[in-house]
Amino acid sequence: MHGNEAAPEELFEQGLAALHLDLSAEVQQKFMDYIALMLKWNRVYNLTSVRKPALMVTRHLLDSLVVLQHIKEPRLLDVGSGAGLPGIPLALARPDWQIVLLDGNAKKTRFMTQAVADLGLQNVKVVHERVELFKPEQPFDTIISRAFSTVENMTEMAGGLLAPEGRLLAMKGVYPLAELEMLPDGFTVKEVIKLDVPTLDADRHLVWIERV
Questions:
Q1: 68 assigned to a ligand binding site
Q2: Does residue 186 lie in a domain region?
Q3: What is the pTM assigned to this prediction?
Q4: 60-92: per-residue pLDDT in tens?
Q5: 131 is an annotated ligand-binding site residue
Q6: Which CATH number covers residue 89?
Q7: Taking the CA atoms of the chain, what radius of gyration do you get in angstroms?
Q8: Is this entry keyworded rRNA processing (predicted)?
């Protein structure tokens, strides 16, 4: 499994090095605390199908952090955040960003609220609401989603929450060719970026969408 037998801490440290990310030992520990929380709540809430800590490092933590360099800060909305992915890893790595985690599932927002409190994240707000009903006080510089609906749906539902110069980022597995042909009017694909997630043997792409 490409080194997934290593201890989660070790695997995470190696992944950070591969991504050229320098995080303090204290922050790295918070990432491990986050995994422990997911494992604990997963028994009751079924937050994720990933059950092993080492796989969580690869498929959740590193898979989230790989998008850092593509985000336009400081205001970020994570749509359909689920267990807090990618928003919580991004918030841990960038405490100066303001991040809203949005999900319509009460169990998942309950977990995220607990995680944000336990991890001491001052820069995160959890909102329990469907994206099409969400009315933020101001628009977002970046709206991101991981495994939330199609690119077309994401753009239709969340596009109105985007600042004029903002960017929509859809995290995808294989290159989503068919989805890209269905974009609503007023939006265009700026770029599809191939992501290289350390120790992950699977395709990952980031679809970057802007207003026309």
A1: no
A2: yes
A3: 0.95
A4: 999 999 999 999 999 999 999 999 999 999 999
A5: yes
A6: 3.40.50.150
A7: 16
A8: yes
